[in-house]
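Name: L-cystine-binding protein FliY
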Amino acid sequence: MIKKYLSMLLVGVTALVAVSAAQAAGAIDDAVKRGTLRVGMDPTYMPFQMTNKRGEIIGFEVDILKAMAKSMGVKLETVSTAYDGIIPALMTDKFDMIGSGMTLTQERNLKLNFSEPFIVVGQTLLIRKELADEIKSYKDLNNEKYRLTSKLGTTGEMVAKKLIGKAKYHGYDNEQEAVMDVVNGKADAFVYDAPYNVVAVNKAGAGKLLFLDKPFTFEPLAFGLKKGDYDSLNFINNFLHQIKHDGTYDRIHDKWFKDTAWLKDME
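Structure predicted for L-cystine-binding protein FliY:
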């Protein structure tokens, strides 16, 4: 009877270990088995991820992810997803991880695990040129007579409502529509990350915008994964450490931030 009981106990423990091992397999392990790393992104954030005139998704973060997939021996599969629904889409297994210029905020960190940041940015302003004399910083916009815009679901929206809460706000599903509101005089300022604004002021500004380029927030951008996926975090963090010291990161960064050749692909 004791032998039978011990045998049953051993079978039970073995089953639990097998279940635990299955549960422990994370996004990176799944991607290696599948042969593709599926990354959710909203390809409208220049120069991090965007769609060129041939319909290809390109950008700084895309190139980092391509290097990551190559280091895993798999292909990168980008999954276009509206930004305001990207966290729920991760939770329902539409893709393995989020790579969409996402700021690591404490609010988001309650829902997700984040890798170490791969870049730090900050919110800046594109304002109507007519306001150059009266708007010197975000604080000057904190008045109900001004109208603000940004992309919905982003830290641009969060910051506008938190730090410039007295102004009227109307957001859009993509950056370009929001910028055009300012160009067309329907809004006074566009609140968004510095890397996007430095491109947008020339590409979409039509000579009607002024770029207030001093960031007024601290925003580390990182890759988002489901909570508890520590093996994947370990891999991604080690990958980021590697590329930041072997020249890969600098090469990719300079391609998108110091060279403007890619802009020809966006016409």
